[in-house]
Structures are given as C-alpha cells and as structure tokens.
Structure prediction request, 258 residues.
Amino acid sequence: MGRLVGCRAVVTGAGAGIGRAVVRRYLAEGAAVVAVVRQADEAAALESEGCAVVVGDVAEYQTAARAVAAAEQAYGGLDVYVANAGLWDFHKRAERQTPQELAAAFDEIFAVNVKGALYGAHAALAALTTSLGSVIVTGSNASFRAGGGGALYTASKFALRGLVMQLAKEFAPKVRVNGVAPGATDTGISGPAALDQREHTMNSDPARMAAMAAHIPLGRVSVPDDHVSLYVLLAARAESAYVTGAMLLSDGGLTISV
Ligand SMILES: NC(=O)c1ccc[n+]([C@@H]2O[C@H](COP(=O)([O-])OP(=O)(O)OC[C@H]3O[C@@H](n4cnc5c(N)ncnc54)[C@H](O)[C@@H]3O)[C@@H](O)[C@H]2O)c1
Prediction:
C-alpha cells in the first residue's frame, strides 16, 4: 500500500525537474495531485498520468487560489501544498548587474521563489487547517550557505527558509510547514528574463555540472529522484507528525564541506 493513499496534493513547478519527479512519486504512492505548470503545453503529459492541471504564474495569487480550488473540486480537499517552482540566477554577481537589472531581477526572482510560496501557503491555509495538512517548499543548499547562486538567488532561498520557520510558528498546531533543500541537481532550471536568462538551462553546460560535482563530498551532482523520498516523508502525516519549521538538506554533504 502506498504511503500517500488518500493524500491530496498541489505541486508547483510540476512540468519539469524536481517538481516532475515529486509528482511521479506522489502518484506512485497513491496521492491525488493537482499539477501547477507555467506553460499550457506541459499539461497534456501530466493529465495523461492522472493529474488535474492548473496553468499559471506562481507570482500571481490567483494561480495558488485556482490550484487549491481545483483540489477541492476534484478531490474534496487538500492535504499538502508543495511550493517548488523556482528561478536560479546562474551565479550572476551583484556588481556585474546594472541598477536596473538588479531591481528587475530581484523582483522577478523573489516573486517566484518567495512570494510564490507565501501565496501558496496563504491560499491553502483554510483547506490545510481542515485536513491537518502541511506546506512543503523547495529550498536549496543556498538556504544555508553562500555560493549556491548569486546574491539574488541566495537571498531568496534564505528568505524562503525564514518563511518556513515563521509560517510554521503561525500555522501551528494544525498545519505543519517544512522544506526540502536540494543541492546541485541535474535539471534545466532557468533564470530571470531581467538577466536575459530565461532561455538558459543549468544542465546544458557540462563544465558547470562537472565543477559542481567536484565540490560535493558524495562525488556527484544529484538527480531529481534523489530528493523525492523527503517530500513523501514530509507529506505523510503518520511519518513526520512532529516535524515543523524544518528544512531537510539533501545536498550530498555540500553544506557541511565548506
Ligand atoms: N537544480 C538545482 O540544482 C537546484 C538546487 C537546489 C534547489 N533547487 C530548487 O528546486 C526547485 C525546482 O527547480 P528545478 O531544478 O527542478 O528546475 P526546473 O526548471 O526543472 O523546475 C522549475 C519549474 O518552475 C517553473 N516556474 C518557474 N517560474 C515559474 C512561474 N513564475 N510560475 C510557475 N512556474 C514557474 C518552471 O516552469 C519549471 O517547471 C526550484 O525552487 C529550485 O530553486 C534546484
């Protein structure tokens, strides 16, 4: 029997990378999933696997509200909101950005990485209070140390860790709030349009991936499936009932090695 039978989940950033892997594992564990994707052409594959799909920008509150409503309509409620959608900044150093780029890229990255999670948690709170459910965000090794990105990405992922802690306090005792913090992962994560990084993808540069692997005590860059068991653990109330305010590292030892 699956570990998430009866669990109704929303997963953002569900069309690719870590979010896609979380959706697949949640479905395999028996969960019912609302997949939130940014582009309409990502919907068909998820629908064919049994997901309800919401297309939208997580920087807009209505996307979270529509996702929660879709779970209530399709599945009768919501147990887990996974705020996973994110943008990277390709280590772009602050001093190499113009003031205009800095302002626009800050707004774009924080709107997705921080505001998207805050909106999701806020929109889901009533439903999660009813179900005694939980919020799970995707943090990063950059939630704990410098060097996982540039100033904007690192600041956004530290902010996300603060958000987890604060919301865990505010939403207790009925709703738990936690995060998974992956280290370098083989995905095509992109960056903000403000830095002309919308078409860039992290794993298209073998030299970058090799440089990342060289810093990791476990000796390799991870793949999305390396992290998904932690998302199951945090979603399964019977397995993590006393865990809240936590950000669980899944980084191959990167954070402890520098
Ligand atoms: N890849 C890594 O090395 C790594 C490391 C640590 C943390 N993370 C985090 O993992 C999460 C998932 O990233 P990934 O590596 O799987 O990359 P990915 O690009 O495969 O997945 C991110 C998803 O977020 C979606 N997205 C971006 N902006 C959006 C918006 N405004 N509205 C809706 N959806 C939006 C993208 O369409 C994409 O499907 C992110 O939060 C990222 O910061 C990634």
